[in-house]
Amino acid sequence: MCLAIPGKIKSIELQHNGLVRMAKVSFGGITKEASLEMLPDAKIDDYVLVHVGVAISKVNEEEAKKTFKYLEEIGELGELEDVEDYLPEKDEQ
Predict the structure, then answer these.
(1) Interval 34-83: pLDDT, tens
(2) ∠ at Cα 41 (16, 57), nearest 5°?
(3) How far is CA 23 from CA 47, 62, 72, 81, 93, in A?
(4) Radius of gyration of the chain (CA)
(5) Cβ distance 70 to 76 under 8 Å?
(6) What's domain 6-86's architecture?
(7) Residue 63 three-state SS
(8) I need a labelling partner for 24 at 20 to 30 A (CA). Which of 4, 30, 80, 90 fits?
(9) What CA–CA distance (Å, rounded) separates 8 from 64?
Protein backbone atom coordinates (compact mmCIF):
# COMPACT_ATOMS: atom_id res chain seq x y z
CA MET A 1 0.00 0.00 0.00
CA CYS A 2 1.23 3.51 -0.78
CA LEU A 3 0.75 6.15 1.87
CA ALA A 4 1.03 9.90 2.02
CA ILE A 5 2.07 11.06 5.48
CA PRO A 6 0.99 14.45 6.87
CA GLY A 7 3.69 16.81 8.08
CA LYS A 8 4.24 20.47 8.89
CA ILE A 9 6.53 22.64 6.76
CA LYS A 10 9.30 24.07 8.96
CA SER A 11 11.45 25.77 6.30
CA ILE A 12 11.65 26.26 2.54
CA GLU A 13 14.71 26.73 0.35
CA LEU A 14 15.60 26.74 -3.31
CA GLN A 15 17.97 24.01 -4.46
CA HIS A 16 19.63 22.97 -7.72
CA ASN A 17 20.58 26.50 -8.76
CA GLY A 18 17.24 27.89 -7.61
CA LEU A 19 15.18 25.59 -9.81
CA VAL A 20 13.56 23.37 -7.17
CA ARG A 21 11.63 24.40 -4.04
CA MET A 22 12.37 22.03 -1.18
CA ALA A 23 10.96 22.01 2.33
CA LYS A 24 12.03 20.62 5.66
CA VAL A 25 8.86 18.88 6.86
CA SER A 26 8.32 17.70 10.43
CA PHE A 27 6.55 14.39 10.94
CA GLY A 28 5.98 14.19 14.67
CA GLY A 29 9.56 15.12 15.55
CA ILE A 30 11.28 13.50 12.56
CA THR A 31 12.29 16.01 9.87
CA LYS A 32 12.70 15.06 6.23
CA GLU A 33 13.06 16.93 2.95
CA ALA A 34 10.19 17.08 0.49
CA SER A 35 9.80 18.69 -2.90
CA LEU A 36 7.22 21.48 -3.14
CA GLU A 37 7.08 21.44 -6.93
CA MET A 38 3.46 20.25 -6.96
CA LEU A 39 2.45 22.91 -4.40
CA PRO A 40 3.86 26.26 -5.52
CA ASP A 41 1.72 28.13 -2.99
CA ALA A 42 2.84 26.06 0.04
CA LYS A 43 4.43 28.08 2.83
CA ILE A 44 6.04 27.63 6.23
CA ASP A 45 3.61 26.22 8.86
CA ASP A 46 1.33 24.66 6.22
CA TYR A 47 0.45 21.00 6.67
CA VAL A 48 1.09 18.85 3.61
CA LEU A 49 0.70 15.22 2.61
CA VAL A 50 4.05 13.80 1.51
CA HIS A 51 4.41 10.73 -0.68
CA VAL A 52 7.87 9.44 -1.67
CA GLY A 53 9.50 12.79 -0.93
CA VAL A 54 6.97 14.96 -2.76
CA ALA A 55 4.35 17.14 -1.09
CA ILE A 56 1.21 16.26 -3.03
CA SER A 57 -1.50 18.30 -1.30
CA LYS A 58 -2.16 20.72 1.52
CA VAL A 59 -4.41 19.75 4.45
CA ASN A 60 -5.60 21.63 7.48
CA GLU A 61 -4.09 20.93 10.91
CA GLU A 62 -7.11 19.00 12.17
CA GLU A 63 -7.11 16.66 9.17
CA ALA A 64 -3.34 16.16 9.45
CA LYS A 65 -3.65 15.15 13.11
CA LYS A 66 -6.55 12.78 12.42
CA THR A 67 -4.63 11.10 9.61
CA PHE A 68 -1.46 10.82 11.70
CA LYS A 69 -3.45 9.26 14.58
CA TYR A 70 -5.03 6.74 12.23
CA LEU A 71 -1.65 5.79 10.76
CA GLU A 72 -0.29 5.30 14.28
CA GLU A 73 -3.23 3.04 15.18
CA ILE A 74 -2.70 0.78 12.16
CA GLY A 75 1.08 0.66 12.66
CA GLU A 76 2.05 2.45 9.44
CA LEU A 77 4.43 5.09 10.84
CA GLY A 78 7.60 3.06 10.53
CA GLU A 79 10.56 5.07 11.81
CA LEU A 80 8.35 7.93 12.99
CA GLU A 81 8.35 6.78 16.61
CA ASP A 82 8.33 10.06 18.56
CA VAL A 83 4.84 11.25 17.66
CA GLU A 84 3.24 12.15 21.00
CA ASP A 85 3.44 15.94 20.45
CA TYR A 86 1.89 15.61 17.01
CA LEU A 87 -1.17 13.59 18.00
CA PRO A 88 -4.41 15.09 19.29
CA GLU A 89 -4.86 15.17 23.05
CA LYS A 90 -6.53 12.06 24.48
CA ASP A 91 -9.64 14.02 25.51
CA GLU A 92 -10.03 15.46 21.96
CA GLN A 93 -10.70 12.02 20.45
Answers:
(1) 999 999 999 999 999 999 899 999 999 999 888 878 877 887 666 554 44
(2) 95
(3) 11, 21, 23, 21, 30
(4) 13
(5) no
(6) Roll (2.30)
(7) helix
(8) 90
(9) 9
